[in-house]
Specification:
By secondary structure, this protein is α+β, with helices and mostly antiparallel strands. It has helices at about 15-20, 130-135, 140, 165-175, 180-185, and strands at about 25, 30-35, 40, 50, 55-60, 70-75, 75-85, 85-90, 100-105, 115-120, 125, 145-155, 160-165.
Amino acid sequence: MAQPDHYSYAIPNSVLLKELKLQKHPEGGYFVETDRQEEQVPSPFAHGALRSLATTIHYLLTPDEPNGLFHMNKSATMHVLHQGRAEYTLITPGNPPRIEKKIMGPNIHSGELLQLLVPTGIWKMSRLLPQDLEAASSEESKDRCGCLITEVVFPGFAWEDHGFLTRHAFEELWRGAVPPEAQELLQYVKE
């Protein structure tokens, strides 16, 4: 299966990993922090604790690291696409929780997004699309399959403002009765 005409992957993963000095991310994928503003502000999402005004990372999914785990940041995060495609699954807590799927990619004609804002209080995870992974059958095509984004976190990222979604907390979102359409998401929670 060939990649769609709109799919562009100018810089191979091997070059990105080396030149951007990306390292494995605890959430899955690869990352490197590229900026941390020196100015600090009280975070309204962390009880007024001082945080950097903003932080920025590159984040990369590849065929060998094709997905992240569900997690939540207390701060808002703007995702900006550089190349490739990925599906983002967002879970907004509520009664019942709302599941949304968004595709970051270059095909704006089919509704793919070049930017995605994830506000505070939302569980999120990303993964490469199954059809893109299937199309990457050779080593060369795997090197040109992935998704590179920039994430801008504001106020800036701090590990104490981050949490992984556990199986127990996932089940609690649905008060113990996880609907069939959400069952497939269990593979992306932290055990």
